[in-house]
């Protein structure tokens, strides 16, 4: 196995595979994809819980350069998305560039050689360019609950689902009610004897306009590429319009909120249960969830919604602050991810021994969410301020692919060995983000995975996706320091 490359990519999800494809097509062939797992897929490889599916329509949640016309349903499920990524990696010749089972632990920029020295579980690599495609949703977050390690039965996070655990006819505690939980709770309710859903904060759950694609519909998309492009463009425009409510005019979310409350009253007849499912924050402040079977599952005889705060995990179950202990056979944590830490636990050291965790001690920041001052030739995909609440992240990733390619082409054309975004450029972008985030729905009084511990939103892009594409259309040479 070679140890020296021009470009090293960390991660093989949509970001890593897509970036590698674009690099090869642009003539950058000397690359390696370092992946800690045993295959590609990123979050769609890791999240194999029952019911795992996307909440963005399939035709938007795919690369523009590799359209798929035979999705089985409007909102694809995990196995089909994973198959699509594997197909892309194989079709475009990326799989031979992948080094699976290779976890990156540290990356250090060597100022003498102008190379990144990358320490991994399989030895050291060097690369002129380092691209992080780790994503924001790759490190499961477990709650800091007393006694969490004392439970006697199976206990696992939904992103590390224990398929060997027999949950049929068992009593199961589900802790958390986020995007994953609302998908697997209905599946658990079909097989478990009892499911206790421990809710800290009620989510907004609205109808999922899902459907199975007919054979005739798929044939039409396959035979008429223009029809597929039109379908994708229509979906994009429809979702993009929602940015106005999230970012510009949160009051425009009122009709959707009214529809939510009306649907909740129809679906949940029990007034006490319904009251427990009403969020105490504005719609959109946290991620809006899509499901057609979550609320019906909660009304079933084998499911209990628990809104009392958890006091501790015991060897036999879960005890709440009211003194009630619910004995269970298994605990499933649907408690999300450590989304604001980005490159952690990988240690990254830049120029003059600067540590990335120190540079980000008051919150992650990067120019356009891609480049970090003091860390030459380091590019982030799905970095700070590039997450969305209204459209497909694949669109954002493809904007970043083009920007990174622009930087690398400029370096190659000018014979440069390194570029580094100027600190004043990065600081100006950071101030712009803080100013534009004021007044958005994400800063309307809730705690979410978009925020750091001090309440600073560092994940989301405060605008339209087409405005981000315009901002990343081409790198500005004036924004960078450079050297040969």
Plain-language structure description:
The strands form five sheets. Strands 1, 2, 3, 4, 5, 6, 17 and 18 form an eight-stranded mixed sheet that branches. Strands 7-16-8-9-12 form a five-stranded parallel sheet, covered by helices on one side. A three-stranded antiparallel sheet has the order 13-14-15, with no helix packed on it. A hairpin with a 4-residue loop joins strand 14 (317-320) and strand 15. 30% of the residues lie in helices and 18% in strands. The chain has two domains: 4-139 and 338-483, FAD/NAD(P)-binding domain (3-Layer(bba) Sandwich), CATH 3.50.50.60; 148-209 and 236-333, FAD/NAD(P)-binding domain (3-Layer(bba) Sandwich). It is α/β, with parallel strands linked by helices. The chain has helices spanning 14-25, 43-46, 78-91, 181-191, 215-223, 225-240, 243-248, 254-267, 271-276, 294-298, 356-359, 393-414, 423-437, 465-471, and strands at 4-10, 31-34, 98-99, 104-110, 115-120, 123-132, 155-157, 171-175, 194-198, 205-206, 289-290, 303-306, 310-313, 317-320, 325-327, 330-333, 347-349, 378-380, 418-421, 480-483. Helix 1 packs parallel to helix 12 (393-414) and helix 5 packs across helix 6. The radius of gyration is 23 Å and the shape is globular. The mean pLDDT is 95. The chain has 14 helices and 20 strands.
């Amino acid at each position: 196995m070679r140890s020296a490359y021009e470009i090293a990519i960390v991660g093989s999800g949509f970001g890593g595979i897509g970036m590698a494809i674009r690099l090869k097509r642009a003539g950058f062939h000397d690359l390696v994809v370092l992946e800690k797992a045993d295959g590609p897929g990123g979050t769609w490889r890791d999240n194999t819980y029952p019911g795992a599916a996307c909440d963005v329509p399939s035709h938007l949640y795919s690369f523009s350069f590799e359209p798929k016309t035979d999705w089985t349903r409007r909102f694809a499920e995990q196995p089909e998305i994973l198959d699509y990524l594997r197909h892309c990696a194989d079709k475009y010749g990326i799989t031979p560039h992948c080094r699976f089972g290779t976890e990156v632990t540290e990356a250090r920029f060597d100022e003498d050689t102008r190379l990144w020295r990358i320490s991994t579980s399989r030895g050291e690599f060097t690369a002129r360019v380092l691209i992080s495609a780790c994503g924001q949703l790759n490190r499961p977050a477990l709650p800091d609950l007393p006694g969490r390690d004392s439970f006697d039965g199976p206990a696992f996070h939904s992103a590390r689902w224990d398929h060997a655990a027999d949950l049929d006819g068992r009593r199961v505690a589900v802790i958390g009610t986020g995007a994953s939980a609302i998908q697997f709770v209905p599946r658990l309710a079909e097989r478990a004897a009892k499911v206790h859903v421990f809710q800290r904060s009620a989510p907004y759950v609205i109808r999922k306009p899902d459907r199975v694609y007919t054979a005739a519909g798929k044939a039409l998309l396959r035979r008429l590429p223009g029809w597929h492009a039109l379908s994708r463009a229509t979906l994009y425009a429809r979702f993009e319009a929602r940015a106005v409510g999230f970012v510009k005019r949160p009051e425009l979310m009122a009709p959707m909120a009214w529809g939510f409350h009306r649907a909740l009253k129809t679906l949940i007849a029990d007034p006490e249960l319904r009251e427990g499912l009403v969020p105490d924050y504005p719609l959109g402040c946290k991620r809006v969830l899509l499901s057609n079977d979550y609320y019906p599952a909660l009304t079933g005889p084998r499911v209990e919604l628990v809104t009392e705060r958890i006091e501790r995990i015991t060897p036999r179950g879960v005890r709440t602050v009211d003194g009630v202990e619910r004995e269970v056979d298994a605990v499933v944590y649907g408690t999300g991810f450590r989304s604001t830490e980005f490159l952690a636990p990988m240690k990254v050291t830049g120029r003059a021994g600067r540590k990335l965790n120190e540079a980000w001690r008051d919150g992650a920041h990067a120019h356009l969410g891609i480049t970090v001052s003091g860390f030459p030739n380091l590019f982030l995909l799905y970095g700070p301020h590039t997450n969305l609440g209204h459209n497909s992240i694949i669109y954002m990733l493809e904007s970043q692919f083009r920007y990174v390619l622009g930087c690398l082409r400029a370096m190659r054309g000018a014979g440069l060995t390194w570029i580094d975004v100027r600190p004043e450029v990065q600081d100006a972008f950071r101030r712009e983000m803080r100013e534009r985030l004021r007044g958005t729905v994400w800063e309307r009084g809730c705690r979410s995975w978009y925020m750091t511990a001090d309440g600073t939103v560092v994940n989301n892009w405060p605008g339209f996706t087409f405005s981000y594409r315009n901002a990343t259309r081409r790198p500005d040479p004036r924004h960078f320091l450079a050297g040969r």
